[in-house]
Amino acid sequence: MTRPQIVSQNKSFGGTQYVYRHRSAETGTDMRFAVYVPAGGGPGRGFPVLWYLSGLTCTEENFTVKAGAQRMASALGLIVVAPDTSPRGEGVPGDPQNAYDFGLGAGFYVDAVREPWAKNYRMRSYIERELPEAIALDFPADMTRQGITGHSMGGHGALTIALRNPGRFKSVSAFAPISSPIDCPWGQKALSGYIGEDRQAWRAYDACALIEDGARVAELLVDQGTADNFLKEQLKPELLREACAKAGIPLTLRLQEGYDHSYYFISTFIEDHLRWHAQRLNA
Amino acid sequence: MTRPQIVSQNKSFGGTQYVYRHRSAETGTDMRFAVYVPAGGGPGRGFPVLWYLSGLTCTEENFTVKAGAQRMASALGLIVVAPDTSPRGEGVPGDPQNAYDFGLGAGFYVDAVREPWAKNYRMRSYIERELPEAIALDFPADMTRQGITGHSMGGHGALTIALRNPGRFKSVSAFAPISSPIDCPWGQKALSGYIGEDRQAWRAYDACALIEDGARVAELLVDQGTADNFLKEQLKPELLREACAKAGIPLTLRLQEGYDHSYYFISTFIEDHLRWHAQRLNA
Questions:
Q1: Mind giving me the DSSP string for A96-134?
Q2: pLDDT (tens digit, 9 = 90+) per residue, B191-208?
Q3: What is the distance between the alpha carbons of residues B78 and B6, in angstroms, rounded to a whole number?
Q4: Do A68 and B267 touch (CB under 8 A)?
Q5: B7, B17, B36, B268: which to substitute to probe chain A, counting the most A Cβ within 10 Å?
Q6: pTM of the model
Q7: Any bridge partners for residue B256, and if so which?
Q8: Burial of A148 (C-beta count, 10 Å sphere; 0-12/13-18/19+)
Q9: A272 three-state secondary structure
Q10: Tens of pLDDT, residues B117-141
Q11: Left, alpha or beta for B130 (phi > 0: left; psi -120 to 50: alpha)?
């Protein structure tokens, strides 16, 4: 791992919106990530860190440019990290049919075991281990206070990473997450592609299966638009609701009338999520 | 003029962010524009209308996606209209060298008189006459309460359109405007290209010259980042300050330390501008 280099920096709401690039040992590629750092350089122990994992087709840029998160991140004193969604670059294989839902922009936050994906598609280890080390090293971050959220594929990422790493995140939320990749076309394509046909191995990448198998988080906040085109076929929040209910995990599932799957939905409710995380990270 | 057709609509902060397309008689092309409409359909006389004119290279999309204006537009009850910055499409000539600062994405809010631009590049008449007629016809808008703002080239557009149409706008502001196109490389290229070498004719498209020649607005709010790469060569807020001082126009010019020319700057201060406009539009 080499130290991150600044790609761009822009003053925003008193703090700084950075984009960095670094060499990832996990993916074997250069990876970009966006980091918002509030003004002041970190009071005492540093700022709490909120991770935001993006959805299909996104890079580190979509959330950074479209969500309007900087205003409340500044007001609440949160570092917000938005990674890319897959390895990219020369030699990195994409979807054989150039589809949007596998390969480039669609890493699904898994460590692939099938070839030709296994070499580069290690987004689980990149997000769970390598990038946090870089953040801890180079930013005024208090890594004892981390929260995680994400959108769609990134909501699935946030839920599964939190469930697999008990105690690491003091707060977990999601926007329109894929509730159960095992049980939807996006997830089935991704998991059979990256992991193969051993469905038992898929369960480490499925929030509902992880909960069934005993993994726990303290509580969850999930927003879901009712006009989301992917609601019924792909996202299926009712599966998450059932899993949480059975496991006794307090889930606040808000069905937002008339909202779709876009960043207009996310930007409308990002303030609620940032406040929810800050309340728990600063408790 | 045909009635606008919806290209997209997304629920945002309780209201709706629309993108429309319509045939423009002025430009002879299809034009797109974005409109944010707060919830409620327009109380009584309708919502006041704020115009936002974008800068070089932009379409109707940049402001709509990046500025985060919908939150306060919803809270304050403002319709916000963001037009495109030039005609586009088959047969519309661009810059001969494909530069970013002339032709496509760079209409400069003028009515061109030189060929081959004169036929399509009629952004002044499109913004001053044709598009307001469309807005009045199809949206819950109170056209007796209009404000105008813009960024960079669009800040120039906002200032000059307000100065040439006394009484139409109850509020005028700008982000990092080109203060005097006559006196900077961007403006000189655009005005010589669209208008020709008759520098007297340029004065209708120069905020400082219009003020010198007697045009007035009640007051102005201008934000300008001190880390803006275009500050000294192109934007020159000191020229606007001098012109306003001489003419007795109250100008609130805020030099924002460390901010650049990007939408990170605009999104940081858009709330201040929307509040400033709403205060005057609702007075």
A1: TT--TTSBTTB-TT-B--STTTTTT-BHHHIIIIIHHHH
A2: 999 999 999 999 999 999
A3: 20
A4: yes
A5: B268
A6: 0.96
A7: B225
A8: buried
A9: helix
A10: 999 999 999 999 999 999 999 999 9
A11: alpha
List, for residues A77-129, the tens digit of each pLDDT value.
999 999 999 999 999 999 999 999 999 999 999 999 999 999 999 999 999 99
DSSP string, B229-275: TTIIIII-HHHHHHHHHHHT--EEEEEETT--SSHHHHHHHHHHHHH
Q: Does an H or E element contain A51, and which?
A: strand A47-53
Amino acid in position A151 = H
- What are the phi and psi torsion angles at A175 (to 5°)? -105, 120
Inform me whether the C-beta atom of residue B54 falls under 8 Å from chain A C-beta atoms: no
What does pLDDT average to over chain A? Answer: 97
Identity at B180, one-letter amino acid code: S
Summarize pLDDT for B159-174 with one digit per residue, the tens: 999 999 999 999 999 9
| Token pair listed for A138 | 């180079």
Reply yes or no on whether the pLDDT at B283 is more than 90: no
Task: Write the residue in B10, B227, B264 that is nearest to A17 by C-beta.
Answer: B264
Residue pointed to by tokens 């469309």: B134
For the sheet with B30-37, list strands across it.
B5-12, B15-23, B30-37, B79-83, B47-53, B141-150, B169-175, B220-225, B251-256
Nearest neighbour of A11 by CB, restricted to B13, B71, B260: B260
DSSP state, residue A15: E
Distance between alpha carbon A107 and the CA centroid of its chain, in Å?
A: 11
Q: In what order do the strands lie in the sheet with A30-37?
A: A5-12, A15-23, A30-37, A79-83, A47-53, A141-150, A169-175, A220-225, A251-256
Question: How many Å apart are CA B150 and CA B148, to the nearest integer?
Answer: 7
Mean pLDDT of chain B: 97
The 10 Å CB-count burial string (b at 16+, else e) for B13-29 is bbbbbbbbbbebebbeb
Q: Which residue has the tokens 């919803």?
A: B74
Task: Write down the pLDDT at residue B1.
Answer: 54
Taking only the tens place, the pLDDT of each residue in B74-86 is 999 999 999 999 9
Asked whether the beta carbons of A116 and A103 are under 8 A apart, the reply is no
B65 has a chain A CB within 8 A of its CB: yes
